[in-house]
UniProtKB/TrEMBL annotation:
It comes from Roseospirillum parvum. Residues 36-506 form the Topo IIA-type catalytic domain. It is found in: Cell membrane. Belongs to the type II topoisomerase GyrA/ParC subunit family. ParC type 1 subfamily. It is an enzyme of class 5 (isomerase). The record marks 44, 80, 82 as: Interaction with DNA. Its main location: membrane. SMART domains: TOP4c. Its EC number is 5.6.2.2. This is DNA topoisomerase 4 subunit A.
């Protein structure tokens, strides 16, 4: 350990205290000197030094370009002692029209693109300032702002720019410091200027009133801001909030009812290439089967093409899912944490940001006026000396020619100042003409009038605010007019109504035909096919019981002879060339139970259930869905068994028993229940229920006779009340006693 030398003080300090002091110093340095922008000009030190270095190199918009390597070299050598890569990246961003709303650097060469591709090396690219950047630095030579020494003390740099344009809100800012961050969205200059004019006229204006002129952000890549108006207002009032930004899209009609979805604008700071990759992942992983393809047809403008799977796909549903799963919709976290005029970080609301800009412009106006007054006073002093020389021209010439110390003699003889004497001694002979004397008198009069005007300006706050208003008008005309640069790009829309995305839209839908054998084997084949016993193979002794058209996203209801319902996902039913799988292995179906009916679940539909004893009731399909393999007991069959389950689609019920008695009664007479034994449908002395059917009375009762179907339209003899006995069926009714 080194011993202290003479004059050094040694203090004992706790480790925690020492670390705390040093970390605090580091944190403050990061906050002030790197990460947070100044509310007055909206720039961080690296951006300010870049623009100032380019100004010193005279890279004006009307001059030629210079290599970016030259600019970066000057910046890191004179003003910003950091890595060249960081400085070049900052410079590139100022030139990207998709990154900043109003570019401050005009680039020549490859400066990257919206796909996220890197720019070319700085030795290949060239740059110069834009008119917007010059407006930001207007007044630097007129003592408008303070200067400070650079890091090595050899030169000086501005502490802040005069900022004729409201750059902070116009271009926004983002940064992460130690323990704090900032994220200000870009806005439209024309709208900012309108809000500034309103605040000038009414310093007590509320944030809500200012938002009447500045309604919301205006991002360089456009898009649609779909944030609720109250949430947006709260964000501007508090300086913190979250804004919802979506891509702009439209439907492009094609022939034969087909269409494509075209995305013309992507959200701010979203890389288009990565966005397309994410959509392609959703397609390849079959997480969005309603989307068939995505293509990038962009040139200088963005054009992403989404091709739906079919013409029946709802574009709203498709886009809603993409908004939820991709960066076609993003959240922009607004956080106006800024350095105020005293260099203190604080969160500001919209009014405070606008007021800080106006206060800065008033300071700049006064300093420029005072600087101009100083220049005028100096020039008037010189002109007064010239006038004395013209009035005493011969004596002035004599003194200059013959006196050993003409400067001192001029001062003594004509009571001149040193400035005036030096000006006379430096005067050229060609200026000793009569016309020059008249021009000096005219200039003196003009400068005297300007001096009086500036003095009146400095003495009148009302005139100062009026002058600020005229300056704002000029900015609005130059950068906020009806031009490509000034026109609003981001659409402000109301918060969208929630769009329900059905689950089946997210699952690949495929038509299938479900086959049930009499021995309870279940399988499926691709497509909707009309299959008969001769078209299918079964195990020995087995035969076709039922076929059912469905899709892979459907729920299938299995009704057993025990009166219990089971629920199967259609995608679980085995497919292939085999015989399938026994139902009892797919659900907990008892060995002695049989499958009575197989149905595709239709939400909201009613079913008519009946047992062998002639009892039954109506039940809602939504109430019979089973969540487990054990199913749900619905019909209490007692000593009998469940025999029928069919959709209640009609207004009458036809019932026939083993005794061949037919009864027809209104469907309304059947009770609707959730579970139970049900009500009597038909009375029997012997036997039980043979068959039943729900139909529409006006269309008649249809039954199958051999290979032909017959319809009985006059059913008056068989109409009765529920629980009646009925009469023998019409002549020609099948001897099997079934409707077929």
């Amino acid at each position: 350990m080194r011993s202290p030398s003479e004059g050094e003080e040694v203090r004992e300090v706790g480790l925690a205290e020492a670390l705390g002091e040093r970390y605090l110093a580091y944190a403050l340095s990061t906050i002030v000197a790197r990460s947070l922008p100044d509310v007055r000009d909206g720039l961080k030190p690296v951006h300010r030094r870049l623009l100032y270095a380019m100004r010193q190199l005279r890279l004006d918009p009307d001059r030629g370009f210079k290599k970016c390597a030259r600019v970066v070299g000057d910046v890191i050598g004179k003003y910003h002692p950091h890595g060249d890569t960081a400085v070049y990246d900052a410079m590139v961003r100022l030139a990207q029209d998709f990154a900043v709303r109003y570019p401050l650097v005009e680039g020549q060469g490859n400066f990257g693109n919206i796909d996220g591709d890197n720019p070319a090396a700085m030795r290949y690219t060239e740059a110069r300032l834009t008119a917007y950047a010059l407006a930001l630095m207007e007044g630097l030579d007129e003592d408008a702002v303070d200067f400070r020494p650079t890091y090595d003390g050899e030169e000086s740099e501005p502490v802040v720019f005069p900022g004729a344009v409201p750059n902070l809100l116009a271009n926004g800012a983002a940064g992460i410091a130690v323990g704090m961050a900032t994220n200000v969205p870009p806005h439209n200059v024309g709208e900012i200027c309108a809000a500034l004019k309103h605040l000038l006229a009414d310093p007590e204006a509320s944030v809500g009133a200012l938002m009447g002129h500045l309604p919301g952000p205006d991002f360089p890549t456009g898009g649609v801001l779909v944030e609720d108006a109250e949430a947006l207002r709260a964000a501007y009032e508090t300086g913190r909030g979250s804004l919802r930004l979506r891509a702009r899209w439209r439907v492009e009609k094609l022939s034969h009812g087909l269409y494509h979805i075209i995305i013309d604008e992507v959200p701010y700071q979203v890389q288009k290439a990565r966005l397309i990759e994410r959509i392609a992942e959703l397609i390849n992983s079959r997480k969005l089967p309603i989307l068939a393809d995505v293509r990038d047809e962009s040139t200088e403008t963005v054009r992403m093409v989404l091709e739906p799977r079919s013409r029946t796909v709802d574009p709203e549903v498709l886009m809603e899912h993409l908004f939820r799963q991709t960066d076609l919709e993003v959240r922009f976290g607004l956080n106006m944490n800024l350095l105020d005029a005293d260099g203190i970080p604080r969160v500001m609301d919209l009014k405070a940001v606008l007021a800080a800009f106006l206060d800065h412009r008033l300071v700049v106006l006064r300093r420029r006026a005072e600087h101009r007054l100083g220049r005028i006073a100096h020039r008037l002093e010189v002109l007064d000396g010239y006038l004395v020389a013209y009035l005493n021209l011969d004596e002035v010439i004599r003194i200059i020619r013959f006196e050993d110390h003409p400067r001192a003699e001029l001062i003594r003889t004509f009571e001149l100042t040193e400035v005036q004497a030096d000006a006379i001694l430096n005067m050229r002979l060609r200026n000793l003409r009569k016309l020059e004397e008249m021009e000096i008198k005219g200039e003196h009069e003009r400068l005297s009038a300007e001096q009086a005007d500036l003095q009146a300006l400095l003495a009148d706050p009302t005139r100062q605010r009026a002058e600020i208003g005229r300056q704002i008008d000029r900015v609005a005309e130059q950068f906020g007019g009806d031009t490509d640069l000034g026109r609003r790009r981001t659409e402000l829309a109301a918060a969208p109504e929630p769009v329900s995305v059905p689950v089946e839209a997210l699952i690949e839908r495929e038509p299938i035909t479900i086959i049930l054998s009499r021995m309870g084997w279940l399988r499926a084949v691709k497509g909707h096919q009309d299959l008969g016993p001769d078209d299918l193979r079964f195990k020995d002794g087995d035969d076709l019981a039922q076929t059912l058209h469905a899709s892979t996203v459907d729920k299938v209801l299995v009704f057993a002879s025990t009166g219990r319902f089971y629920t199967l996902g259609a995608d679980r039913i085995p497919r292939g060339r085999g015989f399938g799988e026994p139902v009892r292995l797919m659900v907990d179906l008892p060995n002695d139970a049989e499958v009575v009916a197989l149905l595709v679940h239709v939400p909201g539909r009613r079913l008519l259930l009946a047992g062998s004893a002639g009892r039954g009731f109506l039940v809602r399909e939504d109430e019979v869905l089973a969540q487990t393999r054990t199913g749900r007991q619905v019909l209490n069959v007692g000593q009998g068994r469940a025999t029928h389950c069919l959709p209640a689609e009609g207004d009458h019920v036809a019932v026939i028993g083993d005794n061949r008695k037919l009864l027809v009664f209104p469907l309304d007479e059947v009770a609707e229940m959730a579970r139970g034994q049900g009500v009597i449908l038909q009375k029997y002395r012997d036997g039980g229920l043979k068959d039943l059917k729900v139909f529409t009375l006006a269309e008649g009762l249809t039954y199958q006779r051999g290979s032909q179907s017959r319809t009985e339209t006059d059913l008056t003899p068989w109409l009765g009340r529920r629980a009646g006995v009925g009469r023998l069926p019409p002549t020609g009714f099948p001897r099997s006693g079934c409707f077929g």
